Amino acid sequence: MAAREQPFPSARAARSPALRDLGLSTDRPLIVVDVDEVLGLFVQGFGDFLAEQGLDLRIERYALFESIFRPEATEPLSQAEGQALYDAYFHTHCGRMEPVPGAAAAIARLSRRAGVVFLSNAPAQAETPRRDWLRRHGLVHPLILNRGPKGPVTAGLVRQTRGRSAFIDDILANLDSVADHAPATATFQHVADKRLRPLAPTSDRHRRIDDWAELAEAVEAAVLG
Known about the structure:
By secondary structure, the protein is an alpha/beta fold.
């Protein structure tokens, strides 16, 4: 949802690490993949967390912090309250998130012939539970936590490879950022939660594919030719 586009508005993007330090070859294609609403059902998990706090997540717009309500309230919680709940979720509950059906199998297929990196906009305290969650679901590739638009760090990664590259995310601002900073990278939009799909902003700049089997085929064609 839109609040995740800039959860840290004053922070800089993470510096791109060396692919070799991540255990990745610079001779293979590279696929950079988001986590929330791409590999994991973030909105479902966040909604479950809010319910435990006695709050409602009303999915009527693509704006996370404008969708959190007290029962029977007509106005959402404040931005500050929403941010505090977002941070608390990543501190205590993000490891409970359900995986997106078909995602792990598709990533396993793609990783046979390409390097894979997970690039997630999440608070620093989420690093260990997020990495553990990925491993539990067979997603054992390197994880980078980012802050802000994903174009700069993605450009720094793909610049190191001699192969083609692709980027997968649900949020249009991140896709646009990558297209601006790494224009040779194929960009794909994937929105896992069916409730969000009609609400998510899209663009002709990026292919929108919400089924992982179809998405894997398209990414494979883009990076392998």
